[in-house]
Amino acid sequence: MSHTFAHNLVALRTIVRREVMRIVRIWSQTLIPPAITSTLYFIIFGTVIGSHLHKIHGFDYMTYIVPGLVMMSVITNSYGNITSSFFGAKFQRFVEEMLVSPMPSWVILSGYIIGAMVRGLALGVIVMLISLLFTHLHIEHPLITLTTAMLTSMVFALAGFVNAVFAKKFDDIAIIPSFVLQPLIYLGGVFYSIDQLGEPWHTISKANPILYMVNAFRYGLLGVSDIHIGVAYAVMVFFAVVLGGFGLFLLHRGIGMRS
Amino acid sequence: MTQAPALEITDLRKTYGNGTEALKGVSLTVQPGDFFALLGPNGAGKSTLIGIISSLVNASGGTAKIFGVSIHEQRSQAMHLIGLVPQEINFNQFEKPFDICVNAAGFYGIPRAEAVRRAEKYLKELRLWDKAQHPARSLSGGMKRRLMIARAMMNEPKLLILDEPTAGVDIEIRRSMWQFVTGINEAGTTVILTTHYLEEAEQLCRNIAIIDHGTIVENTGMKQLLAKLDVETFVLDTGELPQTLPSIDGIELRRRDDHTLEAEMARGHDLNSLFTMLDQSGITVTSMRNKANRLEELFVRLVDNGKQEKAA
């Protein structure tokens, strides 16, 4: 192991440790509210409304929406963690601690992404455990379930990072989740199958990247999907590569951070 | 083999997006082991210069090397050699000083066990150990500044840059900070200091550069610079002063208040004529001291000259 690689590994561990400690330190903000929100979704949409609905793809409504609600938590928490953490570092200027250090850009980006993924995936597990109070689950394809959750978490952590880099005030990190992310999640097949939609909405829905992630995860968990699993992976990998490259470019140039 | 300069910058330029030309081709060399003062009025370009050296500001042109290592071509290696104490507080106010220091060491690739040892060492040396587990936001202003010095020491840099570290710090804490920094300079660390307290620079630094409007207007040894001062000013505490002050050849008398006079004269001018004329005018001198600070006088002149040249 080279000297530089060993240094970078220590630096990476330091950022991840700091991010995880932050999540744990403010657990009442980072872990509890999303769990309560998901529980309410299960009660209202699953139990109260869902009991009056037909089965979708052979599953009762409660079971059908579990993958979507898990992904909703993974997406919003991965995104929200990195926007608040990285923008906070910019706002308090302690991002400079990292910029003056020898750390290469990929270490800084990876550290924040892993931190955001820890929170996103932790919430995914919590929501899945809550769902067991309402329904029975048998994971059809564990590897697909795991890789889809990880890729989705990574994509939205990267998107959140880009948002945080360009944000100049706290409003800037609240606008995208409210006006872009939430509508895309709700229209991304969390609560319904796009096979239930007529044209042009069926085709329009396919422009929504979240649809591919929710369906890939549903395929992993339940074995049913509106989208071909290969296409879903291609979409996730495409966004991960593009956003990862853009994030590295921003850090390397110091856009939004260096004068 | 001669050692490469601690800092060697050549024709460094910076133009901000709004068109402000903060640095107009600055060249500067700081030798290893030096305690170097970088002075200049607000907006002169000091922080931009330090920002470029520490890679917080992207240069528009020119080169900078730390102990021969280019900050542009070998940024990572160069940053291992630098410790920065910035002007503004820039640590996570919600973290504890101990964690801030240990994390800072981690960013430099220092293993956790060694980072913990260094954090204890430097927090103790800077008298912060009893606050090590308190939230950083609860520290006083002076403590926050000392914490930034402790953090900058975590990678045990060969070049420590302090950007106005004593701004707003009381005298006692300021002295303890200088005791620490002088100690590490004597142990071999090169120190670059910017400050508005010119008596600090005069007491601590061996070499000095004065920057104004993005250019270096003076770069020399502290002693050589002070030797250039051809005028001295004395402050005289007196009895009640008369309405009209006496006129003395070669000495300019100024009334500061009814019991204080300032006498400005060429260096080496004989003082006997001053006392004789004051005695003849019925002015009793009760005490006398050199007006602090010699460097301040030079600084004001150099900066004023720059303004006059610009106006011309």
Give an overview in words.
The complex is a heterodimer of chains A (259) and B (312). Chain A has 259 residues and is an all-alpha fold. Helix content of chain A is 75%, strand content 0%. Chain A is elongated. Chain B has 312 residues and is of the alpha/beta class. Chain B folds into two domains: 7-220, P-loop containing nucleotide triphosphate hydrolases (Rossmann fold), CATH 3.40.50; 231-295, Alpha-L RNA-binding motif (Alpha-Beta Plaits, 2-Layer Sandwich), CATH 3.30.70.1560. Chain B contains ten helices and 14 strands. Chain B has helices at residues 46-53, 75-79, 97-107, 112-125, 141-152, 171-186, 198-204, 222-227, 272-280, 294-311; strands at residues 7-15, 21-30, 35-39, 61-66, 69-70, 82-85, 159-163, 190-194, 207-212, 215-221, 231-238, 251-257, 260-266, 285-290. In chain B, the strands form three sheets. Chain B has a six-stranded mixed beta sheet with strand order 6-7-8-3-9-10, with helices on both faces. Chain B has a four-stranded antiparallel beta sheet with strand order 2-1-4-5. Chain B has a four-stranded antiparallel beta sheet with strand order 12-13-11-14, covered by helices on one side. In chain B, strand 1 and strand 2 (21-30) form a beta hairpin. Chain B is globular, with a radius of gyration of 23 Å. The termini of chain B are far apart. Chains A and B meet through helix 1 and helix 5 of A and helix 2 and helix 3 of B. Chain B: One of its GO terms (molecular function) is ATP hydrolysis activity. Chain B: This is ABC transporter ATP-binding protein. Chain B: Keywords: ATP-binding, Nucleotide-binding, Transport. Chain B: Residues 7-238 form the ABC transporter domain.
